[in-house]
Design brief:
Strand content: 5-15%
Radius of gyration: 31 Å
CATH topology of one domain: Transferase(Phosphotransferase), domain 1
Number of helices: 17
CATH superfamily of one domain: Transferase(Phosphotransferase) domain 1
Largest sheet: 5 strands, antiparallel
CATH class of one domain: Mainly Alpha
Helix content: 40-55%
CATH architecture of one domain: Orthogonal Bundle
Shape: globular
Structural class: alpha+beta
Strand order of the largest sheet: 1-2-3-5-4
């Protein structure tokens, strides 16, 4: 082959190689194809998150549907009882015979009190607040808002923000109620006044101390207390959300037992107060600790007074209704035989309307973990609902685990099972020397409130257990 022919052949092959390489570039995938894969991963995560949200919504819907069905069934029963005993006709005929209401019988008084919605008038709210202002000034705990120097916000709830502040040179915590809470709630001033009044009556080592209050809602509805930076939840589990794995070492057993005893002593004081104070929202995040790691039972936003008369609360509304039977006899009756249960409570439970600052679903669901089954079922309840909450906390202190962390249940599903009496947190196993403590926990969270001990009994029992273990 001549030199010119070889040169021509080499030129063609080199062109073919270039074209082949260019073709490969056009047909083969390049590194730039990887971003769609990452995008797909993000989409999959978003889809999975949406699935979890949908699952929660379905569980919530099931829970509320079950509660609604129970309320409707009980309302039908109450109407039937009213009709069988002539109460229904009495209520319907009341308009035609107004003169009969001048001297009602005890039975009719009970029915009338429970069937007529009691909405506090604005004048009554102002009167109550005026009386509280006078009481605060007389006892030296009225605080002018100009005396408070707010610093950083340390927490926020459904109805208020909590700030670290300075008052007369002292570090304090200031709970600032949202102005809209007063504007959008007819009973907002009453609720605020009741929380302040509840705190103003407390004088106990293990109950949060009120320093004073700014009593000028809506813009200055402020509750001023001692400043405590740590909760029982933080002390036991460390900061952050619920986890199955511990992020901090578990405190020594004797220290956890002391915390339980201090909580019980604080709650005994509240329950033996005249009138009795029911906390209704006892949980580790509402129990604070001072610099010496002693507890303070706190957050009385849901607390209610319960007098020595025959009274009980309803789980849905928290309003008080009168029973004709004594508390002891009433508890022994089957639920369907409690004939004096008010019609109005069932109606309110069915038609209660949320407002802007009603507790959010996430906050409510976290509270459900510590809530007594009778409260979840919107049934009448008394101070023993706090004993149930304490039983859950006592077991949490003993095991060092969040309640129900051993399950994959959402808070709403936990509430369903607790309300049906099907579930309790896992107990500590293989501990022979604390069997009496396990028994105390089981009694405290018993399904029947009648079997739950009083806090006086719990305090005595914990002292005996502590002394026995320390002497061993």
């Amino acid at each position: 082959m001549s030199r010119e022919q070889r040169k021509s052949t080499n030129t063609k092959s080199s062109r073919k190689g270039l074209c082949g390489a260019f073709g490969d570039c056009m047909t083969k995938p390049t590194i730039a194809a990887s971003p769609p894969r990452q995008s797909n991963n993000r989409l999959e995560l978003q889809v999975e998150e949406l699935r979890r949200e949908v699952k929660k919504e379905i569980e919530l819907k099931s829970m509320y549907k079950l509660r609604l069905e129970r309320t409707q069934d009980y309302l039908k029963y109450c109407l039937q009882v009213a009709q069988d005993n002539g109460f229904l006709n009495l209520i319907l005929n009341k308009k035609d015979n107004p003169q009969d209401s001048s001297s009602p019988t005890p039975s009719s008084a009970i029915i009338q009190a429970s069937t007529i919605p009691q909405t506090p008038a604005t004048t009554q709210q102002n009167t109550d607040l005026s009386a509280l202002i006078e009481q605060a000034k007389l006892n030296g705990w009225y605080i002018d808002p100009h005396e408070i120097e707010l610093h950083k916000k340390v927490a926020q709830g459904s109805t208020a923000e909590i700030y670290k502040a300075t008052w007369r040179g002292l570090d304090v915590a200031v709970k600032c109620i949202f102005p809209d809470f007063f504007r959008l709630n007819d009973s907002g001033v009453n609720f605020f006044a009741q929380e302040v009044e509840t705190l103003s009556r407390q004088r106990h080592t293990y109950v949060l101390q009120l320093m004073g209050a700014c009593l000028d809602p809506p813009n200055h509805g402020w509750v001023v207390t001692e400043f405590l930076n740590m909760t029982l939840k933080d002390w036991l589990h460390g900061p952050g959300k619920r986890r199955k794995e511990r992020v901090t070492p578990l405190p020594p057993f004797e220290e956890r037992l002391v915390k339980a005893l201090e909580i019980a002593q604080g709650m005994q004081y509240l329950h033996e107060h005249k009138p009795m104070i029911i906390h209704r929202d006892l949980k580790p995040s509402n129990i604070f600790m001072d610099d010496a790691f002693h507890v303070r039972v706190a957050d009385f936003g849901h607390a209610r007074f319960l007098t020595d008369e025959e009274k009980a609360f309803t789980g849905e509304t928290g309003k008080i209704f009168i029973f004709s039977l004594t508390a002891k006899k009433r508890r022994k009756l089957p639920h369907e035989k409690q004939t004096e249960f008010t019609l109005h409570s069932a109606i309110l439970a069915t038609h209660k309307k949320p407002d802007k600052h009603t507790i959010s679903s996430s906050q409510t669901l976290s509270t459900y973990v510590y809530m007594a089954p009778e409260v979840i079922r919107s049934e009448p309840y008394d101070e023993k609902c706090d004993v149930y909450s304490f039983g859950i906390i006592l077991n949490e202190l003993l095991t060092g685990h969040y309640p129900y962390i051993e399950t994959d249940y959402s808070p709403s599903k936990i509430a369903l099972h607790v309300g049906e009496g099907k579930i309790r947190p896992a107990l500590l196993e293989h501990e022979d020397n604390i069997e009496d403590l396990i028994q105390l926990i089981q009694l405290s969270w018993h399904e029947d409130p009648e079997y739950r001990p009083s806090f006086a009994t719990i305090t005595r029992g914990l002292k005996l257990i502590y002394n026995r273990l320390m002497d061993a």
